[in-house]
Amino acid sequence: MSEDNTLGFKHYLFLWFGAAISIAEILTGGLLAPLGFQSGVAAIVLGHVAGTGILVLAGWIGTQERIPALVSTRISFGTYGSYLFSVLNVLQLLGWTAVMIIAAARSANEISKLLWGLDQLSLWSIGIGGLVFLWIILGREGGVKKANMLAVFLLLGITVVLSSVVFKDSTALLAPPAGGMSFGQAVELSVIMPLSWLPLIADYTRFAKSKASAAWGSGLGYFVGSCWMYIIGLGAAIIAGNPEPSAMLLAANLGLSALGIIILATVTTTFLDAYSAGVSFGNVFPKFDEKRVALVMTVIGTIIALWVNIEQYENFLIAIGSVFAPLFAVLLTEYFIIKNRKVQDEMLVNWGALIVWALGVGMYYQFITLDFVFGATIPVMVITAVLYRIVWGYTQTWKSCKKYPIAS
Fold first, then answer.
1. 9-316: what fold?
2. Which Pfam families match (predicted)?
């Protein structure tokens, strides 16, 4: 075992539970309110069972091969293919960094306005971005590993408080559905959130002591945390018509503590986004230090949060699903079914895999319009996987490879 492979079950449980406790998860759960509470919870659980299961499989590859998430795509798509997905992943991670910072800044600003009459949204954005910057400087080992465990215990307490605020009057949860959202749409919004972590999870599971510890820790931590956050947002939107975390925290009379809660939940999640943006960048430019690149990404994400209004991110979530659902359908089929499990350094592009991926992207948007009962991600990944397995034997020569000089 390498000396770098030091992370066990509890580390992944804490890491991914902390990642799941975020404003974004609560707000997305609130979008499901028109479906009603019972159907909403059913959609949340179904979507997270599917999404978290796929997430664990992607993490398994990272532990087995000891490579980051985007490097693992070279198995199916080749070196240049992985560059394409690295660029797309950096863009989505910059988007997530900005979304998390701006959402937290809005919540913190609402609290500070009520407590002190202080209305400084830009200042809060810069401050929260600065804390993410500091969290990255502490590094994966030592400081962050211990601090993240402490943070998760605090966040667990926060989650209990939020639950007590939202569900103290459960009679309102019996209200009939308001309409305006189908079950399939709710499933899709539930499965997309774990799907957004697909290009990141192996960045962390590659350091695991064992495949089982990484799989169980990551899967349980994220599933429980994310479902819980979604259900809190769903309940708050149904009961109070407002899934905004700052409103719930103030309703619990937490006052100044609410600021710390908002900031802590944001930093533990946004750290993963910014750090993995650095790792993905390193897949294209390996000479760059991933931590330094992550710091630059944090600065860029903070600047985006200052200047661009991207809080309405439902379309952003759909765009993530359209790219990464068919991508990982191809990779998981290659790795677990076809059992091609090693990166071929000589393969630059696998055109067959790229064509199937592109068809999967097109199918995704078709299923979004069909409003299928199981959403778009689940059927698209199944169809893409079957299609890739069928055409795999016919497209083995559709590759661009390095030309090595023939030895004399």
1. Hydantoin permease (1.10.4160)
2. Transp_cyt_pur
Tokens 């068919």 appear where? 326
Contact 56, 134 (CB under 8 A): no
Average of per-residue pLDDT across 197-206:
92
Binning pLDDT at 50, 70 and 90, where does residue 1 land?
A: very low
Helices (H) and strands (E) in the chain, counts: 16, 2
Would you state the structure tokens that stand for residue 48, as one six-digit string? 């997270």
> Of 362, 321, 340, 262, whose CA–CA distance to 76 is shortest?
340
How many other CB atoms are found less than 10 A from the CB of residue 407?
4
Please provide the DSSP assignment of 29-40 as one string. HHTTGGG-HHHH
Structure tokens at 123: 């200042």
- Tell me the C-alpha distance between 401 and 387, whole Å: 24
| Torsion, CA 382, CA 383, CA 386, CA 388, rounded to 10 | -110
Q: What is the model's pLDDT at position 248? A: 72
Asked if residue 379 lies in contact with residue 371, where contact means CB atoms within 8 angstroms, the answer is no
Residue-level pLDDT at 408:
40
Residue 49 pLDDT grade (very low, low, confident, very high; cuts 50, 70, 90): very high
- Two structure tokens written together for 170: 């459960």
